[in-house]
Amino acid sequence: MVQQLKPVDVVVVGLGWTGAIMARELTKAGLEVLAIERGPDRDAASSFALPSIRDELRYSIRQELMQDAKTDPVSFRHRPTDEALPIRRFGAFLPGDGVGGMGTHWNGNTFRFLPTDHRLKSHLTERYGAARIPDYMTIQDWDVSYDELEPHYAKFEAVCGVSGKAGNIRGAIQAGGNPFEGPRSGEYPNKPLTPSHANELFRKGAGDLGLHPFPAPASNSSAPYTNPEGAKLGGCQYCGHCDRFGCEADAKATPWSTLGPALTGEAKFRKLTQAYVSRVLYDKAAKRATGVRYIDVRSGETFDQPAEIVVLATWVFGNTRLLLNSGIGTPYDPKTGSGVVGKNYCYQIQPTCEVFFETEELNPFMGAGGLGMVVDDFNGDNFDHSNLNFFGGGYISLGSTNGRPINFRPTPPGTPRWGAKWKSETAKWYRRTASMLVEGTNYSSRANFLDLDPNYRNVFGDPLLRVTYNFTDNDRAMADWVLGKAAEIGRAMGATVVAPKPRKGDFNVTAYQSSHNSGGAIMGKSPADSVVNRYLQHWDAHNLFVVGASAFPQNAGYNPTAAAAALTYWAAQAIAGAYVKHPAPLVPA
Amino acid sequence: MLDRRSFILSVGTAALTNTSIAEAAPSATADTVAAPASGAPEALLTLTPKEAALLTALVDRLIPADDLSPSASQCGVVTYIDRQLAGAFGAGARLYLEGPFRPNAPAVFGYQSAMTPLQLVQAGAAELDDWSTAQRGKPIAALPAAELDPVLKDLEAGKITLGRVKATAFFEMLLQLTMEGFFADPIYGGNRDKAAWRMIGYPGLPATYAKAIRTHRGKRYEAEPKSIADFA
């Protein structure tokens, strides 16, 4: 039996970054907001106490803060003609759950996308001609410009207390920052984190090559900080337990550390945890969402929660699956290219390059999630692609995130994985190795998409989301080329061994790469090319907003959180400002 | 004094030739297998003595004793594996186990076995012992150390055919659990005396380096490693 609940103004599905931002902005606008989160309630005081939070096995290896694959994985295949198999244990990417979502256990890298990333197709067409864009590459413009998003990027950075160094303030290039970034309205709220020794070696090596190294912008607070919402963040202790962990000091900005205090004191806000939203209730004739249906994950009871506005903020997979399961919009068909739901699923390609130093002491266990040195010289279209056989690029970073020994055990190429030689090499190099990363773009492809799996179901009886994905020729050519640049930096650093690791073969679901998935409910100019308009409002239901990285038409060479968050602030402004006064489509279809 | 491996080896062999020995004295055998270096007895929670003997033989080739550290089993890795398999992990926590199954799918699809980790290790151990008895005339625990390395290499490369268990799936599970046990916080039963952390120079807890990242730039940071248990 489905139990009927009292209507609310707004239901927000998912309480990670984008859900928390929506809840905060819409309660500020006077709306009553119910946030429904499938996972448990979590905050630093109750969940992340020392010493038990420094437990690599429990949090990093067993993935305690992640979505439970037993109850709800995704299935995966490389090509539309293959049979998909369930990802039985998450590996390459780690969806979150619980209050804070992936924002609880992220590293804190807080990059803005390049202005050209926001209008990719127009930019490449203007600079290189439409004929240079491969047929399979289904890129399109965001339909929201960098300049329009700039205040929202700035707002998110202030909320997070981002530590960094600006490279471009209102058009004036700043020494020590990223000269390729779009114009910023101001400096970062916090000074950069203290660089590690390995970061300094990278800065010098890259600088010697004439590149432009700068400290990675990090939502790890370099000093105690109070954000504009009144939340207090502690100073980072460089403990090396950011990614996959909660922060006991609230030095890492998370949805709940930054917005939780304000939401907790807000009478119009309620959160409901351990509740799995299975459907958006949709009146197809009226083209209107009427609410959501959810299941209490502990009792199995089902409830219908009516709402005037429904916001889907469940990350890439959840947003797309909710639309597909609820019958809202036309599913994408890779054969014909028609339909939009599930289209332009993207990820990133991230080859790495390890650098081994015979004589340097790097203390790899001292680190912070966003602590790194970066060059952006080979990202996006920051370099001329006229004579190259690919588009896109990626930043190259040397991150000092952690030296947690179950996972961090670098050995030079050719070392066995076990036995006496493995052991002596592990003991020799543990303290003397760092890893560089190419954060490679992923430009959408006709054959990469999301739909519903015909064979596998989750514990609630819903079909698994099926991911069809592989790296494209463009991705591979780009990644190999940029990885070559990373190896040059490694040699300039004076490393004893420089070991680039290209991504070869079919996509591998087991080894962690990043949780920078995107697309599936993309934004665009018309219902023919997108699920949502530039305000993330669904073309087929004007009171339904689908927010986050699911809206990216393709993926840039940056960690996506700041772009997803800025876009959510932009959408929230449209709802609170224009939509509430005149509930109607904000863009004519 | 009989070292641990020799003792287990003899018990394992005896248990094979006369099952009543193991059945008659399970607690004594279990205590011996799981005994930490300090000597305090510990129970086996889910592995049989025979399985523990096989794992001891194998993990001590994955991580052998030398001047860098004691062997895996001497560091408690078999105790660690036993506890992990006896608990939520062994029962398949966080592992989607709905069919249909394609256990021979390419490795890029990750874990595709229909078995829980406990079932996989138990079945793999039994099938490997059957293979060893048929091919080498002795169970794994009775093979000399020098003969185990080629067996492990063939398992790793998928050159050995077991029964229902895919050789590489068994090997990868074994390697992963061994490395976890060796490097995890000692509270889980392995990494006794923080031997693995001492070997590489990992200081453990409390991990607050806001000053040290500046004062020890380019200089080795040395500290007596501390476990979660040291703060309890």
TrEMBL record, chain A:
Start and end residues of each Glucose-methanol-choline oxidoreductase C-terminal domain: 448-567
Keywords linked to the UniProt accession: FAD, Flavoprotein, Oxidoreductase
Residue intervals of the Glucose-methanol-choline oxidoreductase N-terminal domain: 232-346
Superkingdom as given in the UniProt entry: Bacteria
UniProt-listed SUPFAM superfamilies: FAD/NAD(P)-binding domain
Signal sequence segment: none
Cross-referenced Pfam families: GMC_oxred_C, GMC_oxred_N
Keyword Flavoprotein on entry: yes
A single MF term (Gene Ontology): oxidoreductase activity, acting on CH-OH group of donors
Keyword Zinc in annotation: no
Family recorded in the similarity comment: Belongs to the GMC oxidoreductase family.
Protein name: GMC family oxidoreductase
Native species: Methyloraptor flagellatus
Automatic annotation (TrEMBL), chain B:
UniProt entry keywords in alphabetical sequence: Oxidoreductase, Signal
E.C. number: 1.-.-.-
Signal peptide: 1-24
Keyword Transport: no
GO molecular function list: oxidoreductase activity
Protein name listed in UniProt: Gluconate 2-dehydrogenase subunit 3 family protein
Native species: Methyloraptor flagellatus
